[in-house]
Amino acid sequence: MTSTITATDLARGLSDVLNRVRYRGERFIIDRNGEPTAVLAPVEPPTPITMREFITQLGQLPAPDPDFANQLEEVQAEQLSAGSTPWAS
Question: Would you say residue 81 lies in a domain?
Fold first, then answer.
């Protein structure tokens, strides 16, 4: 179901409108100064994939740069150790 709501009414009842979108699946056209401005609708849930599909997709990714591991080690070496700060105590 799609309803039209003014921006002012949306601002006043945002929590209620968001609950209606989330739990009832309602859609709202937000009207501002007499003109439709936006649509507020439920988010489509992500499509689940199987582990086999995930592994296939993972296998299709390009290999990282040959120097990638070295670059990660350099970044890690530059990080402060846990518990230390750059500020004097």
Answer: no
